[in-house]
């Protein structure tokens, strides 16, 4: 039996296919990222969050990504040592530490995201343009309703 044979046998065909595709798309890029940049997955998650929005704290990142606080805390400490983010006190709430991506962090983030974009393009090259649009529309519909269906 080949690994791909399970696609026809699984009792949850959509979820399994999503996980299957995610693994074969994401994992090689993450391994390359770790090899080329020394970053690990939780660090990328933090950089992505800070690239999207400034002045976040670690709790904000935990809430958005559903990563455990100790994982995010270690990633923040590591990224600060690598000078990919800054940590400062919030002037309004001095108990809160505000995180921001540095120019060096933005550069490495953008390089990693370009690699993900290349991998996505390769994966989607098999689809006709309309199929790719339909897939995006359907996945977007599912993603925007996550609060309705998640367990």
Strands ordered across the widest β-sheet? 1-2
**How big a fraction of the residues is strand?**
5-15%
Q: Which regions are unreliable across 5 or more consecutive residues at pLDDT < 50?
A: none
Could you give the order of the helices and strands? Answer: HHHHEEHHH
Assign a percent range to the helix content.
55-70%
**Sheet with most strands:** 2 strands, antiparallel
Please tell me what the overall shape is: globular
Using only C-alpha atoms, the radius of gyration works out to 18 Å
The number of helical elements comes to 7
Secondary-structure content class: mainly alpha
Distance between the termini: 32 Å
- Mean of all residue-level pLDDT scores: 93
Total beta strand runs: 2
Question: What does it look like?
Answer:
This protein is mainly α and 151 residues long. It has helices spanning 13-37, 41-52, 58-65, 69-81, 103-124, 129-144, 146-149; strands at 85-89, 97-101. Helices cover 66% and strands 7% of the residues. Strands 1-2 form a two-stranded antiparallel ribbon. A hairpin with a 7-residue loop joins strand 1 (85-89) and strand 2. Helix 1 crosses helix 5, helix 2 crosses helix 4 (69-81) and helix 3 (58-65) crosses helix 4. The radius of gyration is 18 Å and the shape is globular.
SSE layout:
Layout: H1 13-37, H2 41-52, H3 58-65, H4 69-81, E1 85-89, E2 97-101, H5 103-124, H6 129-144, H7 146-149
Antiparallel strand pairs: 1-2
């Amino acid at each position: 039996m080949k690994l791909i044979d399970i696609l026809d046998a699984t009792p949850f065909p959509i979820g399994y296919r999503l996980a299957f595709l995610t693994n074969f798309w994401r994992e090689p890029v993450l391994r390359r990222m770790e090899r080329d940049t020394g970053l690990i997955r939780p660090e990328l998650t933090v950089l992505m969050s800070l690239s999207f929005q400034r002045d976040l704290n670690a709790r904000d990142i935990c809430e958005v990504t559903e990563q455990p606080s100790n994982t995010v805390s270690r990633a923040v400490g590591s990224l600060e040592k690598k000078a990919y983010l800054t940590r400062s006190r919030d002037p309004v709430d001095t108990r809160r530490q505000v995180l921001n991506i540095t120019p060096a962090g933005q550069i490495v983030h953008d390089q990693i995201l370009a690699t993900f974009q290349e991998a996505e393009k390769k994966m989607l090259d098999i689809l006709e343009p309309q199929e790719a649009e339909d897939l995006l529309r359907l996945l977007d519909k599912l993603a925007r309703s996550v609060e309705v269906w998640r367990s």
